[in-house]
Amino acid sequence: MSTRIAFIGHQPKNETGDKMKYDCIVIGGGIIGAAVLDRLARYDLDVLLLEKEDDVASFSTRANSGIVHAGYDCEPNTQKALFNVEGNKLVWQDAKELDVPHHQCGSIVVATKDQVQGLEILKEKAEANGVYVEIWDKQKTRELEPNVADEIAFSLYAPSAGIVSPYQLCIAYADRAVRNGATVKLEQEVVGIERKDGVYIVHTQDSDYECDYIVNCAGAYGAKVNDMAGAEHFDTTYRRGDYFVLDNTERKNIHTVIFQLPTAAGKGVLVAPTADGNVIYGPTAIDTTDPDDTASSLDSLDVLRKSVALSYKTPAYNKCIRVYSGLRTIIGHDFIVGKSKQADNFYTAIGICSPGLTSAPAIAEYLVKEITKEMGATKKAEYITVVEKLPRLTEISANEINALVKQDEAWGRIVCRCEKVTEAEIVRAIHSPVPATTVDAVKRRTRAGMGRCQGGFCGPRVMEIISRELNIPLDKVRKGGGEDSNIACYKIKEVQ
Question: Which residues are marked as active site?
Answer without folding.
Answer: 69
